[in-house]
Amino acid sequence: MLLGLFGLFVLAVGVAVLGAERSMRISGALLRLQDTTAEIRVRASFLLLTVFAVLADRLGLEAILGAFLAGAIVNLVDRDQTMTHPEFRRKLEAVGYGVFVPVFFVATGVRFDLNGLFANATNIARVPIFLAALLVARGLPALVYRSITTGTQTAAAGLLQATSLSFLVAAGQIGVQLDLLRPAVYAALVAAGVLSVMLFPLTALTLLRSAREEPRDVLQAAR
């Protein structure tokens, strides 16, 4: 029932925002203030994000659900991004990747149960298993690129696709709250995600760099 009420509220807000966007008077005000210090579009987007996230949390739902729906509404309403406000998406990305993503990782590190992870050998053994599972579940689909890429590029793409932390943290927290996942297992899952962020991109870049340097070595040897 709560989820249904929240969905109706989101729908009503979406219709209201869409109607406001089509209003000539409001559109004129947005155009006038969007690239000033008011940054009206950016502020309105984060107001929407905050309202939805807080409301979802108060209703006993996941705050990430509210954040996702806020982004969906912005994406649905923002149809004219390349004509009247081409910098809007870039500003949102700058704030998101520059502020919220680092805060997310810091908060994840603060809440990480390191003692639970090292409580016994079984928990530690789960980390490489989860890391391998990430490679299989998210890395193997990169094989479909074989027809348009080299073997090195395919391997690098698989490693980059297998890199994951935010999804593991969010899904793991939901699992713990629903008693579907034990905290020790969640700690091992997050540890695997942290290792994927640290190791997979570095390995992928090393492979790509070596692939670029190899033709140079061959050319120099031929000379």
What can you see in these coordinates?
The chain is mostly helical. It has two domains: 2-111; 114-222, no CATH class. 79% of the residues lie in helices and 0% in strands.
Explain the layout of strands and helices.
Layout: H1 2-22, H2 24-33, H3 40-58, H4 63-77, H5 88-111, H6 114-117, H7 121-139, H8 151-162, H9 166-177, H10 183-222
Using only C-alpha atoms, the radius of gyration works out to 23 Å
Number of strands: 0
Structural class: mainly alpha
The overall pLDDT, averaged over residues, is 79
Count of helical regions: 10
Shape: globular
Low-pLDDT parts are none
SSE run: HHHHHHHHHH
User: Approximately how much beta-strand content do the residues carry?
Assistant: under 5%
How widely separated are the two ends? 74 Å
Largest sheet: none
Helix content: over 70%
Whole-number tally of structural domains: 2
Summarize the structure.
The chain has 223 residues and is an all-alpha fold. Helices cover 79% and strands 0% of the residues. It has two domains: 110 residues; 109 residues, no CATH class.
